[in-house]
TrEMBL record:
<dbReference type="InterPro" id="IPR013078">
    <property type="entry name" value="His_Pase_superF_clade-1"/>
</dbReference>
<dbReference type="InterPro" id="IPR029033">
    <property type="entry name" value="His_PPase_superfam"/>
</dbReference>
<protein>
    <submittedName>
        <fullName>Histidine phosphatase family protein</fullName>
    </submittedName>
</protein>
<dbReference type="Pfam" id="PF00300">
    <property type="entry name" value="His_Phos_1"/>
</dbReference>
Length: 154
């Protein structure tokens, strides 16, 4: 299974946290990363895209795919386990899942999968963590960091 944790792009400030739209910079960030992801996922038979209820998360996801899922379980302030639950990690063997969400959860989930600890890893706005779960011939499971990047690197 491949899990891509994508932080929403740059968003406007606002009192209603779920209603904050992307800034013009955020739209550019989301488009850059989405273009790169589409190229990387072009050979994938299918992939799911899941966004929180936050407008900024949905606007980021929409740059990759119009038919994404919305799941309130990954709204800001949720538990880290919710990200793994909505992605069906690691049950969807052979699948690709993109989860568009928020800090500090994304960095902590990436750290948990790669180190076994929920460390405070930062994820830049519009950035991704691409983590692959591989089962070896002898049955051992390995977690591989396939990519970690931010829009300014593209």
């Amino acid at each position: 299974m491949d899990l891509i944790l994508w932080r929403h792009a740059d968003a406007e400030d606002g009192v209603d946290d779920l209603a904050r739209p992307l800034t013009p910079k955020g739209i550019k960030q989301a488009k850059k990363v989405a273009t790169w992801l589409r190229e990387q996922l072009k050979d994938a038979a299918e992939y799911r895209v899941i966004a929180s209820e936050a407008v900024r998360s949905q606007a980021t996801a929409q740059q990759l795919r119009a038919d994404f899922e919305i799941n309130a379980k990954i709204n800001p302030g949720c538990h880290n386990a919710c990200y793994l639950e909505v992605a069906r990690w690691p049950r969807d063997i052979g699948k690709f899942v993109v989860v568009v969400g928020h800090q500090p959860n994304l960095g902590e989930v990436a750290a948990l999968l790669l180190t076994g600890k929920e460390l405070e890893w930062n994820t830049r706005k519009g950035g991704i963590w691409w983590i692959q779960r591989k089962v070896m011939d002898d049955g051992r499971v390995k977690y591989v960091l396939k990519a970690a990047l931010s829009p300014d690197l593209l």
